[in-house]
Amino acid sequence: MVRALGGPRWRRLHQLIYLIAILALVHFFQQTKLDVSVPTLVAGLFTWLVGYRLIAWRWKRPGELPTWVLLALSVAAAALTFAGEAIGIAIAFNVSPLMVLRTAFDFDLDNLDMVRPGWYVLAAGLGVVVIDLICARWRTRRPRKPAPARAPVEPARETV
């Protein structure tokens, strides 16, 4: 398809994907009438993914992003998810966003329906951080090199 579309058209198509994803999120929010927690969760995960793409694009050093950057991205995406949900609920129900934020930090583990989407976004981001740590540990362990093969020793010849 890259050859069929050509390089510039292919890149333009990939850039349009971000706009299409944002429009899909808007549509998802519009279709959800009562509980916007699932669209908020999807928007938070999308925020994490777009944040990763932006950071990786702007990162000047070669190689993968460091673990601390992934951790900071996870916290920032979760905070934006909490803030976005609080502002949305505050506008819809004409209440203070701070009051909504206060309820986000009061959750009961017996009732997981009450856990706000920001916590799930944070958990997903921290899962990526843990996977990154495991992969980094895996990369530093290098298998032992096998001993170099020795040339076969010829038996000594007896001279008579």
Descriptors:
160 residues, mainly alpha, 6 helices, 0% strand, elongated
Could you say which overall geometry the principal axes of the C-alpha atoms support?
elongated
Low-pLDDT runs: none
Binned, the helix content reads: 55-70%
Q: SSE order in H/E notation?
A: HHHHHH
Instruction: Give the helix tally.
Output: 6
| Topology, number of strands | 0
> What is the typical, i.e. mean, pLDDT?
87
How many strands, what sense, and barrel or not for the largest sheet?
Answer: none
Distance between the termini: 77 Å
SS-based structural class?
Answer: mainly alpha
- Give the C-alpha Rg: 26 Å
Q: What portion of residues belong to β-strands?
A: under 5%
